[in-house]
Design a protein that fits this description.
Layout: E1 5-9, H1 16-26, E2 32-35, H2 42-54, E3 62-65, H3 68-74, E4 78-81, H4 88-94, E5 99-104, H5 107-115, E6 120-124, H6 139-149, E7 154-157, H7 165-170, E8 175-178, H8 180-183, H9 188-200
The protein binds the ligand Cc1nc(C(=O)O)sc1CCOP(=O)(O)O.
Domain Thiamine phosphate synthase/TenI: 7-182
Keywords: Isomerase, Thiamine biosynthesis
InterPro entries: Aldolase_TIM (IPR013785), ThiamineP_synth_sf (IPR036206), ThiamineP_synth_TenI (IPR022998)
Amino acid sequence: MSKKELHLISNGKQSLEQFVDLAQQVYEYVTAIHIREKQKTARELSDWVERLIGAGVPREKIYLNDRLDVAWAAGVAGVQLAYHSLEPSVVKRRFPRFRVGRSVHSLQEAKEMESQGVDFLLFGHIYQTGSKPGLAARGIESLKEIVEAVSIPVIAIGGIKVCHIEEIIAAGASGIAVMSGIAGAEDPRGKAKEYMQAMVGE
Ligand SMILES: Cc1nc(C(=O)O)sc1CCOP(=O)(O)O
């Protein structure tokens, strides 16, 4: 079985100090840390990257949401693109070494993004979550449908708790992305370890 991915996503509410502290606790157990801070400037985001690296987070685990400019300047692993971001095909053509993720919310979008050459998809939200208030969850069946329709890794996101891992992995996902499940845990390091262990079936 290939290694499963655990992505931690920043929630736009924590200070730099809080997020660095969180990342420092969990980075050994996660495969990717996404800086998703829509209100921050390029300079601020680049400070976030430098502080994470200074705290021991490997550059190869850091992804910038949307901001190819910051990702490129900081020399991190890649970018997580959204519908309003640059087209993945453009990014891949200019920056083939970047690992490019794309957030998708339908089967059609997933297929289109695969054809644009993205490296992985984030699909959600699978379960009801306070991080996406007022929007109906897409459910495990739609995750299964997408996994079956594409051949690139699909990472599940949205409301994921440790108790959901079994059905997510059974649906064929290559991993999960989590915001509140780790950031809101009493022991984030222990929780990240639990998520990862549940995925690899330990
Ligand atoms: C950032 C994000 N994107 C989603 C999508 O469906 O694309 S769901 C989501 C929030 C994930 O947070 P939590 O783990 O707290 O539910």
